[in-house]
Amino acid sequence: MDYNEQQEPWYSPVRIIKEFSKLSQVYESKIEDPVFRRAQEMFMGAITLLGAYELSPENKYFMQSNNQSPSPDVMAAKLTEIPNKPILLEMVQIELVEMEEHMETNDPFEFLMGTKLSKKKSYSENDLITLVINKRIKFDPKSIYDNLQNINPKPTIYIVGKPLNTAGAFSITRVWPRLTKTVTFNL
């Protein structure tokens, strides 16, 4: 992908969450309308990046909206210092997919196989897929990880959800390439 990382401004995930909160207060339930799709993607990308930081403090990312091509949804970058070398800008492309209440399956692995991991899609090790679960289900991250071992996908895969009855809280689990514990964090 030919991407110009200097074309758009970079933001901290915290800034995106604050701005999305302001937007939500003004537009209330209308924030779910498709006209706000880009803002919703940036918000969920920010949740993913904050959750990734909660899983490992080395994950200090900044982000920008990808307005240069239809895919990926969000670009993220972190600076990596290597002794005696220039600072490296590590870019990550975030693809978001939402498993909503009206989806027929309650199996996150099956859902991923039908969407982002279908044979029609192709992702690299520089991609990050975030599955946002927006329905009441129970799932076993270990089972998803075991199933992913059979197909060995290239991208990193996170699952993000909202715990019941906890305002402002989200949970995150990385199910690929290494399984992590589930962490709950509050905005």
Description:
With 187 residues, the chain is of the alpha/beta class. The chain has one domain (13-186). 28% of the residues lie in helices and 27% in strands. It is built from four helices and seven strands. A seven-stranded mixed β-sheet has the order 1-2-3-4-5-6-7, with helices on both faces. A hairpin with an 8-residue loop joins β1 (62-65) and β2. The radius of gyration is 16 Å and the shape is globular.
Quote the beta fraction. Answer: 25-35%
Percent of residues in helical segments?
Answer: 25-40%
Q: Please mark out the parts with pLDDT under 50 across 5 or more consecutive residues, or reply none.
A: none
Biggest β-sheet description = 7 strands, mixed
Rounded to an integer in angstroms, the radius of gyration calculated over CA atoms is 16 Å
Q: Which strands sit side by side, in order, in the main sheet?
A: 1-2-3-4-5-6-7
The sequence of SSEs as H and E is: HHEEEHEHEEE
- Number of domain modules: 1
Number of helices: 4
Estimate the global geometry from the Cα principal axes: globular
Number of strands: 7
Mean pLDDT: 94
**Class by helix and strand content?**
alpha/beta
Distance between the termini: 33 Å
